[in-house]
Fold each of these.
Amino acid sequence: MEEFLDKLPQMDLMRSEKMTLVQLIIPVESAHRSITYLGELGLLQFRDLNADKSPFQRTFANQVKRCGEMSRKLRFFKDQIDKAGLRCSPRHEIEPDIELGDLERQLADHEHEVLEMNSNSEKLRQTYNELLEFKIVLQKASGFLVSSNAHAIGEETELHESTYSNNGFIETASLLEQEMNPGPSSQSGLRFISGIINKDKLLRFERMLFRATRGNMLFNQTPSDEEIMDPSTSEMVEKIVFVVFFSGEQARTKILKICEAFGANCYPVPEDTTKQRQLTREVLSRLSDLEATLDAGTRHRNSALNSVGYSLTNWMTTVRREKAVYDTLNMLNFDVTKKCLVGEGWCPTFAKTQIHEVLQRATFDSNSQVGVIFHVMQAVESPPTYFRTNKLTNAFQEIIDAYGVARYQEANPAVYSVVTYPFLFAVMFGDWGHGLCLLLGALYLLARERKLSTQKLGSFMEMLFGGRYVILLMSLFSIYCGLIYNEFFSVPFHIFGGSAYKCRDTTCSDAYTVGLVKYRDPYPFGVDPSWYGSRSELPYLNSLKMKMSILLGIAQMNLGLILSFFNARFFGSSLDIRYQFIPQMIFLNSLFGYLSLLIIIKWCTGSQADLYHVMIYMFLSPTEELGENELFWGQRPLQILLLLSAFIAVPWMLFPKPFALRKIHMERFQGRTYGVLGSSEVDLDVEPDSARGGHHEEEFNFSEIFVHQLIHSIEFVLGSVSNTASYLRLWALSLAHSELSTVFYEKVLLLAWGYDNILIRLIGVAVFAFATAFILLMMETLSAFLHALRLHWVEFMGKFFHGDGYKFKPFSFALISDDDE
């Protein structure tokens, strides 16, 4: 047996890549180029040898700070380009590499130029806005002012309050009477202030004026016909022109202070019509000049931003790469001589040759007299986990990593999930009509794969696009299971030939509940369509899907236990095989494996035995005769043997392993007492370069290990029952999906189609399409997806998967995102 197991392959594709801890000793003159080339290769994960230092105490802190400042300037340019509405496509020709210092000077010059233009433009825009507001006030306020010959009183807001005639506040004449009196306003003491204010502040502004002047004022307003641009936000703002009539210097002071507080701009408007026209002409002339100046400034600014925009993408990439290089250099140690840097990191074993070649090329390109020293170190800590994936397997690997990253060289569940995950989904979602709809969606994503991969998608669309191959496999398996269930939007079809049943006589030609007899071989593939609509449809499909769920669940849990055996064998843990794997296999299969055997025998023989009765009385009365529930000869003694095996397996799981570990520890401890003091030995059962080293200094606590084993044993025993029951969700969701499809088909589509009215038929088709798309294709898909996820994370992976590793994150320019600036 041992020879057979030794000849089995080591499951290289099923485990993470073998990792090697390496050390680099890099001369200072070639350090930057070496790290740059390693970033382009992307196969080396550096360890931080300066973790005890703050970012400001590291060697290349100034360079990192400079790169951060350049990133800020580049983001500033990008914001300015977006704000100006420019579209600057990057140049396609290859630009020469630019030194960091030259780029820094260029960015400083460009930033100074753009800031100066922004400042000038803002000042000009402020002046332009003031002149524009002045022009609007001149045009609108003149309607409120009274000339010596006529009164042109526009829209006004009269505040009818009792405070007009309160004690102590009665003027010699009311403001309206003063306004209506002919003659210049200076003779009656009536004065006015005109200006303009934002529309959203008008109501509060008017209320404040009324309270400050105790109602002794007249407020007129009219909307401006033009919107004015806010220089700070570049948004168009709607404003209102106002004219406040009042009397007295004290009221004037209050009104001006309120205008200043509310941001209202006041402008002097002469009462003389001739002066108004002359002033309006001057303002229009200055506005025309300022418009020309602003247009010229905008063109010059856009030209400057365009020149930056052509190289902006390349510059951002360069700065991101340089910052990443200096961040990595900060993880290296300076040697005492200050002439070289020492770094350590993990790399896949297969990549050692490529890394060595890259370092040689960096030495040659930097004209260094001393080459980079690259050698393998002895690993003590656990290496990172690295799986090489492709477009198909990457999504499944991400699903597994969401639960936990596999321990180094642990069996990878993602390899099996490529098949088992979409298959269990399809068992719950089986309908080849719905499967075809999913397939069309997956094919659409695959057809636009190249275009969508370069676009910035929303969170939901990005999730769909990332799982496009998962959706493809789920749709294919759904079509397969739908053909087995013989359901196309809940409608059965005679795809693989005629039914095996026919009517007993002519009276049952229109009946589906009685009179059917089997007259030929069974339907060749899947469920016979004659079961649908019959009296026994639901009991038959319930029995079929429930038993199938148990068979699939026991098979997958056994697969998980077998993988735990290969894990234990790979890591050389014979205790886990003898005292964990074997009793777990015995316990699970003595009870639920036996149930699966009974299901298969019942299907093959057509027996009417009650499996519930068999399993219950296997525990309650194991020696009692089975009678009509006996499925095969020797069933009763076999049940007694399996029951005893299950009871023996529980203490087998619980007691031997903690005592065996205690015995091994005592033997090691006695051996070490005769050793040399201060020796740094590793565990005896771990090879010197094993990743499981580094735990030899942990103190052995027997009670803790025993309690852990007790918890693990109880969890497995109870979990065997609960996990088997958990797989019944395959039956429940499959039945729910089928019944929902039937309800929508019969109670919506067929019901609407029974009317001769075309409108009712169209409404029925629309409701059926809506229900199919949003309930069956979206909600049911998500539900089946999540249930399949739980079956893998808990029931399957819980049998062998530790998930306490950490990902391999190499230094790679390809992995640097825009958010890492």
Note: The first helix runs from residue 2 to 7.
Amino acid sequence: MGAMFRSEEMALCQLFIQPEAAYTSVSELGEAGTVQFRDLNAEVNAFQRKFVNEVRRCDEMERKLRYIEAEVHKDKVPVPPVKDMPRAPNPREIIDLEAHLEKTENEILELSHNAINLKQNYLELTELRHVLEKTEAFFAAQEEIGMDSLTKSLIADETGQQAATRGRLGFVAGVVQRERVPAFERMLWRISRGNVFLRRAELDKPLEDPNTGNEIYKTVFVAFFQGEQLKSRIKKVCSGFHASLYPCPPSNTERQDMVKGVRTRLEDLNMVLNQTRDHRQRVLVSVAKELASWSIMVRKMKAIYHTLNLFNMDVTKKCLIGECWVPTADLPNVQKALADGSNACGSSIPSFLNCIETDEVPPTFNRTNRFTRGFQNLIDAYGVASYRECNPALYTTITFPFLFAVMFGDLGHGCIMALFGAWMVIKEVSLSAKKSNNEIWNIFFAGRYIILLMGCFSMYTGLVYNDIFSKSMNIFGSSWFVPYDDYTLEHSKAFSLDPKASYIDTPYFIGIDPIWQTAENKIIFLNSYKMKLSIIFGVLHMIFGVCMSVVNYNFFKRRYSIILEFLPQVIFLCLLFLYMVFMMFFKWVAYSTLSEDPAYRQGCAPSVLILFINMMLFSSTEPEDDCKEFMFEGQGTIQRVFVLVALCCIPVMLLGKPLYLLSAKKKHVKPEQSNGNVNQGIELQEQTDISEVQPKPQAKSSGGHDHDDEPFSEIMIHQGIHTIEYVLSTISHTASYLRLWALSLAHAELSEVLWNMVLTFGLKDHNYIGAIKLYVAFFFWAFFTLAILVMMEGLSAFLHTLRLHWVEFMSKFYAGLGYIFQPFCFKTILEQEDEE
């Protein structure tokens, strides 16, 4: 947890790497994932960088891998996951991998082309077989009805051989796609003016397209005509409609012989297709075993060359120079990675790392684990913390689920949420391995620890509220008893309990007494109770946020802001709103029905809200008889002093810091000018021992709040804006915490309505019909409980809690003007590409 208190210290380092060791060294750094490289060639075009040809080679290998992967998925061959993550291949292995991918691609391409040609031949033979079989049925039907149109003359008055030849009908046969048949028939009718006799029959089974593998439905047709001119027109129409024409002998014997020959060829071709398919399957299965490893190796290789393009070559062209941000705690790991990279390639000259001083603001890096990552993401969604700024995520791990539970307090609903979170936490290894593409599920799974804590805290607040599915539990016995006799109870619709006669003067052991569940003034009581709780938690939360600013002021050595900003802010907040919290506690403790002083008995307790309003307006309210206006002696004087002191804090917040900075600038003496150090500006310094000297780059400001270097007028404007914002926000933010009361009350009332209007419906009958009703009612009650009370109300409470942290809490000390540390890490790169 110590690492979460503020972001880690960063160092700007220069890397000096020999060209022959550059690839392996960057590969080791990518495996370590601890450095963020800077682009030293920002002005150089991407196509003019040193390793652009290597990047193109990687792109070409990725293209081949995409083609191979598409073919593997096309044949539904399973790709086994990678058990051991392969490392980036060395330069010699790259050549072998490239040649192997080239050979594999060519082999699959050849197999695909051969399969397409064989399937095309199989399709044509299948269509020919269907044409011969269907036309046989056409001719047989003609012979049965005596329509010997092929041998009879069309012109009755012409005789002789010439007339018979002119009157003889010709025909063409083929197949056409089924959806084109209507248009095909209309076109034949138009070109022949009705002189074409068309017979067609649909194929029962679909055929397979050899190119796409999709199913296509076709129809066999035979077109009878007269004359060679009409025949050429019909063939042109068939070509236009992509109809396939096949030869069909007019003789029945010839057709039978041809059908037998086609069936024999189909059987032989089918055997060749099966053998080709089996061979292709064997090739793809062997490729699929290595496909994931090849893909990872190529992506790592490409990432290495992209990173090397960020390096700069020195003037002698014998050394690559790179700059990177490194957490100082990881500097030994970086040096070890550089040494391993040099040893891997057998370089005689070691690579080394040199830490340099800089005024640039480093990136922000908060080291997290599985538990804290979700909370850190909530903070980063508002804004990445400025460098070394106090990190709110550490405190959010407790305050976030607690404030959520104040609004979501129900033992039953909290138990459901906690069980769901616990299931995701217990099964997190197997669930994370599935890598779902469902965005909603990924959000839930990323926040599994947040959900678990929110459920556990909601169970606790539900126990305090004594609320489980809108019902109370009488575990420890009520502190109230009924003093009336049976006759009074039977003849009274309602009766009141006087604390003097019905209360045992010992509160319920924990939480709300269960007797309030049956009281008519339950809502009035809970309203007052939860409203005060929300103000108490809100004021304490805001005071804690203001106090956190002291940590930033002290760390960034702006201790004058502790006196000129923090003290007036915390005094202003405490004298007004913490005093209001004090009045709530004093009222709970001092006033009682058993008090001997009449001024401190029931009915005389003044309203805290009225007292606070009178305090701010310097007014008063006449008390009732035997009662006092104030809670204790001298309260009026104390309140006037508090308000005056709080008002005096405003000019201190407004003018204190600007005037201090103005006086400090006048006392500032410029340093003596010098000609500089002899070694100034030389990059290649003696290697720094990181165990002895570590640079400590500091941000120019305390988390982005500082404007010390600006003119006095700008400082006054900024300070005026901050002062007005703070004074007004103390009021608005305190009122904003009332959402804790509003959502808690709404959740409890909605749960009670759902119980009384849905589940009670199944509890009215005591026979077998009541059992059926109970099953139905319980189904709807459970469904609405999960959908509305747990999910929708839970999401609403989550968003309101997020707002309370972002606006009301973090605005007191958090700037969030940093930029995230994005190290060069193979694991992160592969995960991002898989998500895309």
Note: DSSP finds 24 helices and eleven strands in the chain.
Amino acid sequence: MTGVAEDEEKWLASAVAGLQQNAFHMHRAMDSNNLRDALKFSAQMLSELRTSKLSPHKYYELYMRAFDELRKLEIFFKEEARRGCSIVDLYELVQHAGNILPRLYLLCTVGSVYIRSKEAPAKDILKDLVEMCRGIQHPLRGLFLRSYLSQVSRDKLPDIGSEYEGDADTLTDAVEFVLQNFTEMNKLWVRMQHQGPARDKDKREKERSELRDLVGKNLHVLSQIEGIDLDMYKETVLPRVLEQVVNCKDELAQFYLMDCIIQVFPDEYHLQTLEVLLSAFPQLQPGVDIKTVLSQLMERLSNYAASCSDALPEFLQVEAFSKLNNAIGKVIEAQPDMPAFGAVTLYSSLLKFSLHVHPDRLDHADQVMGSCVKQFSGKGKIEDSKATKQIISLLSAPLEKYNSVVTALKLSNYPRVMEFLDNETNKVMASVIIQSIMKNNTCISTAEKVEALFELLKGLIKDSEETVDDEIDEDDFKEEQNSVARLIQMLCNDEPEEMFKIIGIVKKHILTGGPKRLPFTVPPLVFSSLKLVRQLQGQEENPFGNQEATTPKKIFQLLNQVIEALCSIPVPDLSLRLYLQCAEAANDCDLEPVACEFFTQAYILYEEEISDSKAQVTALNLIIGTLQRMHVFGIENRDTLTHKATGYSAKLLKKPDQCRAVYACSHLFWVDDQDNMKDGERVLLCLKRALRIANAAQQMSSATRGSTGSVSLFVEILNKYLYFFEKGNPQITVASIQSLIELINTEMQNDSTTSDPAADAFFASTLRYIGFQKQKGGAMGEKYGTINASDS
């Protein structure tokens, strides 16, 4: 290939040298006004264009040099005409050139001056030139010759309003000239593919593609002719152009020229000739990229409708949607081997067209999706990644247009299209739907819509049999499930019965999610249900005896089932928290048996599932905190549950954890706003027990480490003493507080006590607090008056 390229460079250099040499002599002849020598050397110069050795790219370089010289020659001919030289004689004279190619280039050049002189009608000269150019049938040479003819004549067409306009038929002649030149150029361009050996076909196609604008310029010239109105376009221009496009049977030419037609002619013309234009698409070669051309047509028509609201009645009048839909069906039928990507792209473009032009016609959108379903039915999941991306684009279009998934849910074929997506792409689409809901803050408020929505989202909600755990990216999975959780929180309805139905539907779907999903999806469902419980709180329990009525009891039964499913995974920490939340909600509804059941389940989880010491401490603090807030329990239930909690506290592994849990239990026996829950003796019992455990922790530390450890536990217990002392617990006396302060002072002065700046600061702060309460005066100051808060 390198050798061929070098040869081409040599041939080009030789041709350019010959051209420049003859151009030099031509300039000298023109400077001395020697017409005959100018014609002689110009013909010799143009003979260099007769070469067949150059590739189109190199030939173009040579042609452009010759073109520049011809422009100078044209100026010389104009000056000769002004000096009295007969342009008619000159037109005859150049036809005596020895070779046909130079002769025709000179003829076109003189013809341009001839038209400008107006000594003969422009239409006659143009007709003569376009006919004479038939003499060159070599594809490359003929193509550039006709390109030159197009170039020099484009501003001299006998158009309406032009200075070259003649009688009534001149417009037809102008159009005929351009169409004839276009037809011949296209034939030459198509024939180029057969020039040379078969092995170089790909290279030739690439070279042909580089020359496409030479042919396309004719269509641009046509579009610029002022006199072409809609009738002429419909009756003459479009049928003739389409006839040439279809008959050439060349994929490259058909694709390019159809694209040209769509780009250069006005949108209103396309709309009024839609049927004729669309009829050509099924007749194109199977290898033509029809999806791109048709998509561009639909995009242009959509933009036209958006920019010109007055055009909307025209779209209805010509039944644009129906014609486009039928055309796409015929194209797909005519190309049975069209890949899935092509078909989906066409339907996606049609849907976007429908949404832009007829946003109120949801039946059109559903019809497009129905056509898509029909096209792919029986073919299973679509595996082509480009096709699935287009399906996502198709499914996203209604969401983007209406900013509401509720509208998309009205499309009966929407979920059927989603079924063609593989698992991963289905998840992507489900995420797009959720993002749309979040972005637009869409409220899905009926059970029917929630059912339809969750059917669409099953790729995110339900475990797929085909998915292997190793394939799942943990971060992506968490993000997906968190988005589902946010969605569950957004479902709402002010009517309790409807909201309960929604909760039931969500429960049905999320319980199919498998062990990895439930920890993400159960909590939002629980809290959404508890929100409904709060809404019903205080209402009379089923006043009319209606079995269908939504009651807190029914909701708690559902919650129990949901959390039981979570327990089976197991995630005991989370399940325990949810049981306690439900217990607190049952407490607010005065449902003692329900609250007691939830606490019982929480205790069972604690005993059977939670074995890690840190997890036990956290769980026990939650249990104690929740139990302390409960007011619904009778004496028997409360004693049972409190006894269990204190028992768990004493069984914790680490002594500091035991101590803190035991003194936390003291709050279970003293609740401020409930007089029947103030048992000072049992509070004191807890605090004394905590002191014994703290002392045991000191001794254990002394035995194992040689030092008694920090006094922080004693300071914490002192603060509990002060709390209950202020609350008026008669069992907490000044003497007991004083003895505890002295105990801490003694321990801190003991040489074996480990230095702990944090504990020292805590103790100092506690003493300052006692001093502050003393100085306050009043009843509280009097209470604290006899406590000696010195630290020595």
Note: The mean pLDDT is 88.
Amino acid sequence: MAITAEDVCLERVVPITEGFAAEEVTPDSDLHIIGSDVTVQISSEDAQLVVRLPFGSHTRTFLQEISKCRPGVIGSEDIKQNEKDLVVNNSWSRNSDDKATPRQSKSKMDITSEMVRSSSTMVSDNACLLSEQKFGLRDTIVKSQLVQKEDSYTNLQNFRFFIGTYNVNGQSPKESLQPWLSHDVEPPDVYCVGFQELDLSKEAFFFNDTPKEEEWFKAVTDSLHPDAKYAKVKLVRLVGMLLLLYVKADHALNISEVEAETVGTGIMGRMGNKGGVAIRFKFHNTSVCIVNSHLAAHTEDYERRNQDFKDICSRMQFCQSDPNLPPLTISKHDVILWLGDLNYRIEQLEVETVKMHIKKEKFQDLYQYDQLKKQMDEKAVFDGFTEGEITFQPTYKYNTGCDDWDTSEKCRAPAWCDRILWKGKNISQLSYRSHMALKSSDHKPVSSMFDIGVKVVNEELYRKAFEEIVRSLDKMENASIPSVILSQREFFFKDVKYMQLQVETFTIRNGQMPCQFEFINKLDEDTYCKEWLIANPSKGFLLPDSEVTIELELFVNKSTATRLNSGEEKLEDILILHLDRGKDYFLSVMGNYLPSCFGSPIQTLCYMREPIRDMSAESIRELTLLPLQMSDDIFRDEKPLDIPKELWMMVDHLYRNASQQEDLFQQPGLRSEFEQIRDCLDTAMLDALLGSNHSVAEALLLFLESLPEPVICYSLYNNCLHCANIYTSSSQVVSMLPICHKNVFNYLMAFLRELLKNSEKNHLDVNILASIFGGLLLRPPPQHANPDVTEKRKAQQFIQQFLLREGNSP
């Protein structure tokens, strides 16, 4: 089972003094497996510890650092064995009586079966060799060649995977989950169990805090198949999305490289009420990624669901144990299992027609109207994935506590919202079903059982492949320095816009020598590129005569827009591509940025009577660099606008069109519509904003987030927190704001109070609006630590006071 930093606490310190030793040992209970943990015996004059460390580069680095810490050690050549000096024995041999005792080191080419167990790709007799610079490259070369030869030393063995998904509608567990989790006679080898809407409270939504995580974890653990013992490998949660991974206890040692990540795709592209959580791991020699997602709701919003899926795929990245390797994306796995409330609906049919098809069990006829099927047929989403035949009735929407269809005022049409899909080879679906016995939610749980062919290593064949690679590598080393050919070295990004990704690609073609490449920092710079640029991948490894495609992604966001708007910074950068043991290549990146109201200061926009795209670069720079106007004194000849016209356009649109819009400021809009809204604000080409109310609302939030100086200035942040429950003091703080900031604050509060008058229709309340706008209008200064839950609550309380007071309409 994977152990992370938060699982460990420090109870005792073992000083590195004379008599200290750290040796790798192999306990009797250990299995000979690839990528297993490393057991290290640490001893000093008065203590002896045996610790298990995860296999990989972090452990190698740890042992390496220990070797440097002993007082008096000047170089790695001073590391010795069987003496009082520090011992870091990294050989993989075992003594004849197979005990967990120190072992004699082997010579470099004396390859043993214990090396196979470790899957170490560098045969070394002690830790001093790990410090050689070429270790990383040699390690990577052998790993890459082992992957190429994988079929020669592995065989497929089927393991049974249970995949389950359940939207619990904010309920606590009230019934046993065994009818869902233990339906089959034979216990599965692996359980992957996902939940959505674990907690619908505002606490969970805004602070990601819920007691229901523990409740459902216990309910699942108590309902696993009774004929097997299971070990929990990992739990990951984002707001209401929870994913649990269990394996049979006797498989636990075959699980390695466990990582978990989350991606929020809710409002502003980050709120966690929608999005995905994922766990990736290696089972024997097969990489597996499990994704649990909750996509956008409402029948008409299938494009938003498609966008959520793409965002999860592009943003979900897992760190690798080897820091020299780039992060892994979902697609870089042998097996991908995707489950969740995907929210795709049945369209073009009346509710009664849908129910009639269900009553007659004409599921395949009904399936032709399923949105997910249509979108997959058009390759708009889940391209390359497979879903089994649906032979069960829709899993949504039921009256809670029974099997009757929704009889609420909205009378939702039945739909197959809850789905399980897969991608990869050697996957056979054994069942795909819903479980009507569970009635505590408005959804029914769904499960699927799979037989998945997992690559299991034959250690004798692995040893032979390993020996062959190491020997051939010894002959190859130092034969030549690596060299590559770049398809392009100069790049120009034309008409870059705020929050609109642009991508340019080029290829690196390798020559006759294995090659490790990396973009490196320039002199006196902390990163290899400017903040608005990223190379993907930024480092990697190439076998002889192979090539890789590099994507240069340019994306301007709130942290870079202001300086680009003002012209203080330009889209210009030089990238240095470095080859290990080879030369450096220089790439030129340039572009032109179209200035935007997003990222511009409030005061700057108040002085702009023309659209920002019509302003000269010199005028924008002059206005952006104006000091904040703290009084009614006017810096320039003309009087500024009371509030930015761009802000007025968005608020006026929402005031006139969206006062009764359900889920306003909680449901995301479409990215394409945001781009239209941004262009309209920046050019004033149209008198009215395009796009849905949700898209305009999200654009307003993104606008407030992008302000380089928030509506309530950084200098007053602590004052606001101190008087969060005292209205008179809070009003005094607001009165201290620069005139244009004060106008914007009062204008927004008046608008939000108007929305609250329609709360029966839009379902907004004071807590929701205060939480959303509190984090945008009242932001901590740049050098301030990220606000904790207490600070977030105080920001919420500060805004809440003004929403509960009567005021004028916008």
Note: The first helix runs from residue 57 to 69.
